[in-house]
């Protein structure tokens, strides 16, 4: 056998064992022969192998020790690929005949080896290519999507411009959030970033590659360099990774599609990079063994120490991603402890031979980058599909690995034994404490101290001789009680105080009084009848002497004190043991291998579908950043904990990346060797990549320039259109035209365009004329200028009174007049004066001479106002805000009217834009808009109603209704979800989003037609996308034109309806 054939067989064995590991983890089947049979029947296809096992309904036998402890081969130094189970690399037949082992492997790998010899490509790699090809196809399809989908690019390039010093995001090109999460985590390892950026392809790359592996890896490495260079120096907010994905897709040909797994992709990505660096290392070596920087960075070694049937063994193994089980553990250390110890290990610590078998793992060499793969998926044999484990798992920001190192083997064993002993003692103490806290022999139990206290209270109660049932009417029907109706208040009757208490319930006088009172039988199934005033409120002993009471109280008090002291002592002992266990590894000798958390890859959703994003620590700003596809935002440890620990919603960490805290070169910036200055931006790039990024930035700058030029042309055309409209024929008038700076406001004296001559114009004229008439009554013979000043004061006083009035929500005087709105929001005095003056300068005032003369004076005053006296830009801004306030009101009232009519689909867009407009207004002041909480409530409720409506359509199973339901979800709900997630402090909105997602995820466990399952699988990733980036959206609905009086009336009517019908928010 040649060296090349030997290497090929070793690689095939490694791949075969990786498939066995994955199949065992997914299905829960531990029978190696059955697993091999399934792989052979499926030609190495994992999905078909799973189907084979579930269709056969294979029973899972107990795992044989000889097959479980697969590292029992002495002196076997092996290589485990990234992501493979460390303890399952060799099939141990426990016999001396090694030919049997070779024959078994050869038989199971026959098909896989033949394909590998022909192409150099494994079945696992082909499976990944299917996902990449599906991603590219999805990306191409996205070019045809309508503008309402949330992942389309904004047409305005300025929206896609990178903010200063803000990290660059990665565009999701179709189910590739896993790609973005992994790439960003690796890119932010600056040492890895440097290795990729400064990678120089081998000289023979220009020649034809020797095999398809080189044909794939080298171009991919070059494309990864380009992608990293854009992440370093691009002026874009996010970049498109399609070319890197395209190269991976072109390497393998397949048409199948699936959701990619983060750990599997990371495994293969590092494999590809390792191969690319190995090619370069072999070319550069000079008689020495080539060093691969990927291996040095991501791979470590551990020692497997074990006993198999009384025989001890030690094997050294290499690992990359270290797999950890989540189910049944509360924190990362518990997971690691379980992964490091397997089986019975007592014989490891004793000189006596034992039939027990087990093994321990001890790290001999930790990699600078330590990656843990958290296994959060398990196969449900009953349902025949994988399920996600949502259990909470805590992990620290600083992880000390000393207790798992081989150099600390002896001391760790001592500490583990001490912890085991302490936990046994802890269990005993907790059981004792439980007996104190849950006392009793029946189903209901109570704290013993409370039981004694209740007994003391019973004994101390006032004794009575009456029977507790003597006052109950035995003639009452079953299930009824007798209510004693008190005598009329006018009689003034009181209970006879001379009757002794001990006779009050049974004497002739008491019976006569009871007979005089009317008895009414009342059925009260959930309440008791009123207790007569002469009976005690609590049960009490009938006969107890003072001596008995004294002795009993003394005993109960003493016993209660003893119980409380015992309880406190037990709780203190338990706390001390917990603290001792926590501090067991806190001495300095066990804190010499610190690893700081660098990145957390999070998955939200179910096993079949979901969304990935990453939290990555920025050591220079000392803060966490959230990388969610194109969105890169500042975050916090609290947000990371909420999304990553699990147990809360459907989000949890799937992969943890720690870095050696004693190796700062991993995250240190690069410095110029000559100047000593820190390199940043394009200065970090080699010449070829710098040129590449500069060319892309020039393209982007040109795109922005073309956009600006297009917008300038549009603006010029709009100005020309406005100018043409302004010179259109006007009604005959003898009055002079105002100067240019007053022309624009005069076209809109009612502060909102109205078509009806009997609408706002008439209403405003009537208000103005009333003010003039009132002023004339006060100054009958005064000049028009005095009348104008007086009339303006009268009108302002009237509007000020409206502004100061405390009104209910259904009567909002801000809608009545713009001046009221200005007063509420403390507009500048000059703005208010000019606005009021415009009201009196209206050409359409009454035709009597007095009004005309006042209008002339007002117009003359407008002409005298100098440009520096009133800031016209500020004036226009205030009037625009008022127009937006009116538009917001119209959006809101139409949306609420439709909501109350249960037209939820039609209502949604009005409420969405009401909230958006209102939010913009409230950003300028608290009285600029409406009640934000009210709009948010109905926006949220409307979305939930629309979601339920779409789900109901989907559940019908009818093709047209299913498509209609999914269309509603894609065009409305999915597009609106980022609006609810953008403000993550609004807990009710986040819970509502989770409710909507859970509604659709619940279908994953139900049986349905294949076409419905396919539609659901295509739709769920869109629904579960956690991006808060809002690229484009529906245009706002066209608003009808309402007069001021009509708007106030309809707004008041709908707000009154809400007051009558609205129920408190149900927690959403």
Index terms:
phosphoprotein; repeat; alpha+beta; Ubiquitin carboxyl-terminal hydrolase 25; 1068 residues; USP25/28_UIM; five-stranded mixed beta sheet; ubl conjugation pathway; disordered N terminus; eight-stranded mixed beta sheet
Number of strands: 19
Structural class: alpha+beta
The Rg value, from CA coordinates, equals 40 Å
Mean pLDDT: 74
Overall shape:
globular
The main pleated sheet reads as: 8 strands, mixed
Could you tell me the strand content as a percent range?
5-15%
User: What's the total helix number?
Assistant: 33
Q: Note the gap between the termini.
A: 69 Å
Secondary structure: helix percent: 40-55%
Question: Uncertain regions: pLDDT < 50 for 5+ in a row?
Answer: 1-11, 57-98, 100-120, 130-151, 251-260, 473-536, 728-758, 1063-1068
Commentary on this structure:
Pfam families: UBA_8, UCH, USP_UIM_N. Residues 465-540, 725-783 are annotated as: Disordered. This is Ubiquitin carboxyl-terminal hydrolase 25. The protein has 1068 residues and is an alpha+beta fold. Helices cover 51% and strands 10% of the residues. The chain is built from 33 helices and 19 strands. The strands form 5 sheets. Strands 6, 9, 12, 15, 16, 17, 18 and 19 form an 8-stranded mixed beta sheet that branches. Strands 1-5-4-8-7 form a 5-stranded mixed beta sheet.
Question: What's the quick description here?
Answer:
Belongs to the peptidase C19 family. This protein is α+β, with helices and mostly antiparallel strands. Mean pLDDT is 74; it is low at 1-11, 57-98, 100-120, 130-151, 251-260, 473-536, 728-758 and 1063-1068.
């Amino acid at each position: 056998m040649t060296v090349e054939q030997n290497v090929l067989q070793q690689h095939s064995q490694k791949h075969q064992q990786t498939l066995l590991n994955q199949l065992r983890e997914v299905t829960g089947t531990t029978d190696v022969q059955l697993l091999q049979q399934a792989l052979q029947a499926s030609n190495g296809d994992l999905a078909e192998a799973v189907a084979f096992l579930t269709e056969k309904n294979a029973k899972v036998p107990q795992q044989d020790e000889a097959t479980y402890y697969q590292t029992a081969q002495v002196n076997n130094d092996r290589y485990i690929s990234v992501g493979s189970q460390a303890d399952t690399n060799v099939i141990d037949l426990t016999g001396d005949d090694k030919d049997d082992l070779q024959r078994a492997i050869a038989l199971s790998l026959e098909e896989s080896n033949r394909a590998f010899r022909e192409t150099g490509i494994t079945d696992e790699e082909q499976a990944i290519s299917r996902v990449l090809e599906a991603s590219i196809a999805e990306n191409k399809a996205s070019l045809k999507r309508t503008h309402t989908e949330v992942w389309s690019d904004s047409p305005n390039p300025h929206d896609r411009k990178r903010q200063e010093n803000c990290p660059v995001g990665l565009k999701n090109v179709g189910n590739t959030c896993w790609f973005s999460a992994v790439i960003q985590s690796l890119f932010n390892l600056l040492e890895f970033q440097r290795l990729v950026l400064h990678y120089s392809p081998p000289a023979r790359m220009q020649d034809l590659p020797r095999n398809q592996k080189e044909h794939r890896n080298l171009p991919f490495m070059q494309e990864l360099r380009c992608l990293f260079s854009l992440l370093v120096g691009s002026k874009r907010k996010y970049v498109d990774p399609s070319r890197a994905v395209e190269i991976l897709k072109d390497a393998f040909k397949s048409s199948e599609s699936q959701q990619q797994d983060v750990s599997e992709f990371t495994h293969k990505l590092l494999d590809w990079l390792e191969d690319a660096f190995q090619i370069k290392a072999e070319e550069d070596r000079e008689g020495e063994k080539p060093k691969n920087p990927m291996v040095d960075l991501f791979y470590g070694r551990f020692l497997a120490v074990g006993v198999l049937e009384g025989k001890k063994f030690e094997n050294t193994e290499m690992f990359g991603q270290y797999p950890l089980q989540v189910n049944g553990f509360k924190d990362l250390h518990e997971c690691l402890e379980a992964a490091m110890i397997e089986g019975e290990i007592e014989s490891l610590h004793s000189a006596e031979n034992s039939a027990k078998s087990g093994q321990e793992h001890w790290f001999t060499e930790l990699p600078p980058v330590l990656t843990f793969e958290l296994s959060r998926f398990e196969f449900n044999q009953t349902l025949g599909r994988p399920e996600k484990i949502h259990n909470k798992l805590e992990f620290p920001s600083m992880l000390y690995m000393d207790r798992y190192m081989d150099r600390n083997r002896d001391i760790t064993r001592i500490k583990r034994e001490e912890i085991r002993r302490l936990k046994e003692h802890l269990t005993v103490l907790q059981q004792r404490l439980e007996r104190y806290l849950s006392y009793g022999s029946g189903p209901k139990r109570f704290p013993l101290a409370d039981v004694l206290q209740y007994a003391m209270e019973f004994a101390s109660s006032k004794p009575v001789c009456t029977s507790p049932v003597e006052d109950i009417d035995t003639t009452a029907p079953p299930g009824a009680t007798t209510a004693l109706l008190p005598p009329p208040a006018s009689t003034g009757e009181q209970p006879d105080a001379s009757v002794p208490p001990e006779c009050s319930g049974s004497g002739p006088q008491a019976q006569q009084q009871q007979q005089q009172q009317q008895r009414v039988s009342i059925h009260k199934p959930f309440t008791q009848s009123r207790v007569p005033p002469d009976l005690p409120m609590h049960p009490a002993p009938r006969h107890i002497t003072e001596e008995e009471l004294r002795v009993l109280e003394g005993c109960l008090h003493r016993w209660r004190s003893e119980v409380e002291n015992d309880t406190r002592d037990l709780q203190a002992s338990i706390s001390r043991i917990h603290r001792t266990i926590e501090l067991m590894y806190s001495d300095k000798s066990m804190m010499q291998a610190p690893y700081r958390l660098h990145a957390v890859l999070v998955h939200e959703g179910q096993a079949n579908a979901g969304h990935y994003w990453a939290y990555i620590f920025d050591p220079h700003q000392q803060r966490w950043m959230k990388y969610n596809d194109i969105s890169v935002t500042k975050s916090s440890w609290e947000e990371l904990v909420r999304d990553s620990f699990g147990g809360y919603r459907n989000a949890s960490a799937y992969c943890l990346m720690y870095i050696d805290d004693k190796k700062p070169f991993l995250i240190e910036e690069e410095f110029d060797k000559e100047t000593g200055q820190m390199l940043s931006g394009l200065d970090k790039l080699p010449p070829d990549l710098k040129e590449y990024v500069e060319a892309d930035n020039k393209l982007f700058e040109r795109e922005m320039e073309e956009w600006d030029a297009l917008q300038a042309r549009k603006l010029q055309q709009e100005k020309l259109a406005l100018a043409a409209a302004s010179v259109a024929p006007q009604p005959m008038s003898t009055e002079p035209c105002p100067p240019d700076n007053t022309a624009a406001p005069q076209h809109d004296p009612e502060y909102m365009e109205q078509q009806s001559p009997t609408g706002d114009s008439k209403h405003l004229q009537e208000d103005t004329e009333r003010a003039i008439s009132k002023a004339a009554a006060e100054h009958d013979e005064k000049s028009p200028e005095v009348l104008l000043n007086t009339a303006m004061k009268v009108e302002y006083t009237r509007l000020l009174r409206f502004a100061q009035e405390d009104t209910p929500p259904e009567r909002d005087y801000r809608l009545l007049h713009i001046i009221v709105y200005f007063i509420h929001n403390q507009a500048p005095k000059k703005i208010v004066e000019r606005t009021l003056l415009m009201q009196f300068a209206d050409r359409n005032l009454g035709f009597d001479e007095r009004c005309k003369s006042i209008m002339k004076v007002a117009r003359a005053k407008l002409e005298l106002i100098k440009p520096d006296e009133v800031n016209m830009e500020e004036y226009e801004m205030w009037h625009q805000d008022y127009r937006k306030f009116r538009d917001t009101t119209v959006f809101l009232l139409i949306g609420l009217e439709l909501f109350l009519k249960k037209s939820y689909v039609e209502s949604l867009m009005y409420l969405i834009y009401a909230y958006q407009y209102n939010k913009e207004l409230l950003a300028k002041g608290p009285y600029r808009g409406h009640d934000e909480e009210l709009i948010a409530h109905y926006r949220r409720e409307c979305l939930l109603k629309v979601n339920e409506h779409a789900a109901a359509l989907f559940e019908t199973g009818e093709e047209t209704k299913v498509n209609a339901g999914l269309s509603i979800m894609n065009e409305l709900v999915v597009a609106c979800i980022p609006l609810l997630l953008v403000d993550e402090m609004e807990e009710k909105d986040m819970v509502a989003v989770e409710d909507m997602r859970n509604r659709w995820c619940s279908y994953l466990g139900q049986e349905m037609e294949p076409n419905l399952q396919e539609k659901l699988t295509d739709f769920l990733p869109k629904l579960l996308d956690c991006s808060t980036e809002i690229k484009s959206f529906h245009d706002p609905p066209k608003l009808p034109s309402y007069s001021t009086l009509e708007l106030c009336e309809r707004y008041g009517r709908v707000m009154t309806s809400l007051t009558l019908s609205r129920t408190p928010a149900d927690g959403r």
